[in-house]
Amino acid sequence: MERKIRQKFFATREIRFSVAIVILTALLVSAIFSLLVNFIGDKIGHGVLFFAIIAAGYIIIVLTLTILFSDRLIGPFQRLKTEIKLIRSGDYHRRLHIRGNDDIYLKSFIEEVNKILSENERVHKCREGLVRHIDSELLAILASIEEGKASAEELRENMLAFHKKARDILGEIRE
To answer: How far apart are CA 157 and CA 153, in angstroms?
Structure first.
């Protein structure tokens, strides 16, 4: 029960912090704009012009905050998508990176994805090693068969050694 409560309320603290920053910024800007509106209202009165200024002000605030925070929260995804395509195309040593001003929750997510990429790179290297080993061992066994020099016992020993090495490499991949 305690673990579930901890997961529910504290596991996503980065995203909660990010949302809090967005809300606090919006409230602060709105409060400053309200003070400005009161000052303007005292100077020009409360007519149609006053209403137009308020409407235009709030539209500008909403658009500006939307652009700023969407760039911070959503902007990195196009870059990350490009980097993932490069990794999928065979650039396995590549890792995902984000800018310093990108969202803190995104940073923690990228750290976890990079751990997965490191593990994927290790498995890929082990798999490549296994393929190279299989090729060389099978070619050596095939050569000894074609030359007719190897006895059945030598072929058996070569096949058992090959099997053991392949199992060892497969064990490394699983770890």
So the answer is: 6
Backbone φ and ψ of 97, nearest 5°: -135, 150
Is the CB of residue 99 less than 8 Å from the CB of residue 76?
Answer: yes
Q: Measured between alpha carbons, how far apart are the two ends of the chain, in Å?
A: 32
Residues 153 and 87 placed together within one structural domain of the fold? yes
Residue recorded with tokens 């606090």? 24
Q: From CA 15, how far away is CA 3, in angstroms rounded?
A: 19
Residues 69 and 106 in one domain: no
Q: What stretches in the chain show pLDDT beneath 50?
A: none
Q: Which domain holds residue 31?
A: 1-73
Q: Kindly state the tokens that stand for 101.
A: 């001003």
Same domain, residue pair 118 and 165: yes
| Contact indicator for 134, 161 with CB cutoff of 8 Å | no
Q: Are residues 62 and 87 in the same domain?
A: no
Are 44 and 87 in a shared domain? Answer: no
Rounded CA-CA distance 141/157 in Å is 10
Structurally, how many domains does the chain consist of? 2
Which of these, 115, 132, 118, 120, lies nearest to 166 by C-alpha position?
132
pLDDT of residue 115: 92
Q: 0.70 exceeded by the pTM?
A: no
Q: How far apart are CA 29 and CA 23, in angstroms?
A: 10
